[in-house]
Amino acid sequence: MSTTTRYLVLAMRRPDFDASVIAPHLAFLDDLRARGLLEMTGGFGDGSGGAYVLRNVASLEAAQAIVAADPLALQRTSDLVVREWHTR
User: Fold this and answer.
1) How many domains does the chain have?
2) Which helix (H) or strand (E) holds 80?
3) First-residue to last-residue Cα distance in the chain
4) How many angstroms separate the CA atoms of 27 and 50, rounded?
5) Whole-angstrom Cα distance, residue 88 to residue 86?
6) CA proximity to 51, closest of 4, 7, 3, 16
7) Residue 52 and residue 36: Cα distance in Å, rounded?
8) CATH number of domain containing 80
9) Which domain holds residue 53?
10) Cβ atoms of 17 and 87 closer than 8 Å
11) pLDDT of 37-80, one tens digit each?
């Protein structure tokens, strides 16, 4: 069975999370989706953060560069971790 490389992004809210970043973050995700780079996204049921899956990205470094432009990262309201993910 073949595998596909995707990048799982975990975004965990910091204690000083500012909800005003949500709209710019959603616009960022919409742009990624329009560019064919976003496969899925969603928030955690407990409100602690969320995750999204990047696809069609050349490398872990490229995925990290994309995530560095996320308003959640730019405004430092969440801790974002990118993991290379081999799916099948």
Assistant:
1) 1
2) strand 78-87
3) 7
4) 15
5) 7
6) 7
7) 13
8) 3.30.70.1060
9) 4-87
10) no
11) 999 999 999 999 999 999 999 999 999 999 999 999 999 999 99
**Burial class of residue 10 (count of CB atoms within 10 Å of its CB; 0-12, 13-18, 19+):** middle
Q: Is the pLDDT of residue 35 over 80?
A: yes
Q: Which candidate, 9, 81, 13, 10, places its Cα nearest to that of 47?
A: 13
User: What is the pTM (predicted TM-score) of this model?
Assistant: 0.94
Q: What is the DSSP string of 12-73?
A: EE-TT--GGGHHHHHHHHHHHHHTT-EEEEEE-TTSSEEEEEE-S-S-HHHHHHHHHTSHHH
Spatial distance between the Cα atoms of 70 and 7, rounded to a whole number of angstroms = 14
Amino acid at 88: R
Q: Residue 9: how many CB atoms within 10 A of its CB?
A: 24
Residues 6 or more apart whose Cβ sits within 8 Å of residue 5 = 84, 85, 86, 87
